[in-house]
Amino acid sequence: MSKSLSISNSVKKSLLSSLYRARKRIEYNKDIYIDTDHKTMCEYYNKYQELQKKFSGKKTKVSYNTLKIDKHLLSENHDEDEILFIDNELTIDLLYNEYNKNFINKIYVKIDPDKYTEWINKQNIFIKSLTPEEIYTLRCHTHDGDVIVNYFIKNNFSIDKNIDEIDYNDNRKSKIIVNKKIFNSNRDYILFYYQIKKYLYEKDVKLKDLTRMELEEYIKKNYFDFEWNKILMMYISDINNIFIKCPNVDNSLVFYRGVYDDYYIRDSKRGSYEAETLSSATLNYKVAVTYADRNCCIMRIKADKGSKVILIDNLSNYNEYEVLFPFGTKFFIDYPRHQINFYKTSEICPDETKSKKMMVTDLSVITSKAGSLSKSTNYTATKKTTPPKTTIVRSAK
Known about the structure:
By secondary structure, the protein is of the alpha+beta class. The protein folds into two domains: 64-245, no CATH class; 253-365, Toxin ADP-ribosyltransferase, Chain A, domain 1 (Alpha-Beta Complex), CATH 3.90.176. Helix content is 35%, strand content 20%. The chain has ten helices and 13 strands. It has helices spanning 9-31, 36-57, 113-129, 132-154, 180-183, 193-203, 212-222, 228-245, 263-266, 285-291, and strands at residues 61-73, 82-93, 167-168, 172-173, 177-178, 189-190, 253-258, 272-274, 279-282, 298-303, 322-325, 330-342, 356-365. It has a five-stranded mixed beta sheet with strand order 7-10-13-12-8. Helix 4 (132-154) packs across helix 8 and helix 6 packs across helix 8 (228-245). It is elongated and about 130 Å long.
């Protein structure tokens, strides 16, 4: 006859307690989900949280090696200026990463960065090949020179007011004498100096006897009375000659321009728009967004093989990744107006309730068959007449 197993009260109590807790855990785990869909959703949510950590910690950036003017040393005589460059890097945050690149930043047009690198390397060589006079002339555009020249062209090639009172939309006034700090120069910078010099020498040959310092003082005292129509025509011609020397674009690139209204659509004819003035744009879409209004507009400009574009950022004291298209550039309007959503970088799923909207226009530069500027600017300063078309002619060699 077998003996019955005897369990002490303390052990029995401990086992019962463990069994009770285990049964409670089973009941609890069984009841935490409403149904199987709820359980599946929570499993995905846990994955979502893991993915969100990767989103916030990994962004796509692209960098390009460029140049930047460090010092612009103006000569004290009529010798060439000394211009010192330093290495520079343009870094663009593309916002997206490998997880959300399909929707997060539709404003940016994905192009192989090597194509931009190739173009920028050629621009670096081109800029360093220019004479100090050509660099000086290009730099005039980067600070107020564009305000003056744009007014001159749009005002029927006429300056009809004090040259220092010309403004841009009432918020940016021109000044011919610019503080030396703005241009990193050793003394104040005279806009259009070389064009003024040509003008004065043609007007009075005796002025050739002045030293450069004496000539600059003469300009500062008398520039209000100069024939600015003639000076600015010389400037336009000199800029065009620089663009003729500029290397062509070899691969299709996209640049961005932010604007407050769609004038380029309003003034277009048969699906194309011709810019009277120099047209600036940027490599960095984020810079363009800062110049655009909520309702209008980002211009995405495709520059195909043969286009002429100068990386003016190399010569600018600003950091706006700026590029420059020639006078009279024609653009074909590929897509006039379409609204594009863009999101915060932390967004994992596209949600239109959280997106911002930007009006975008896609344009393409119309190039000549020869792939270069084959027309010439032949502006004539006249009053109350329709301005002639911008054309560019190769200078005789």
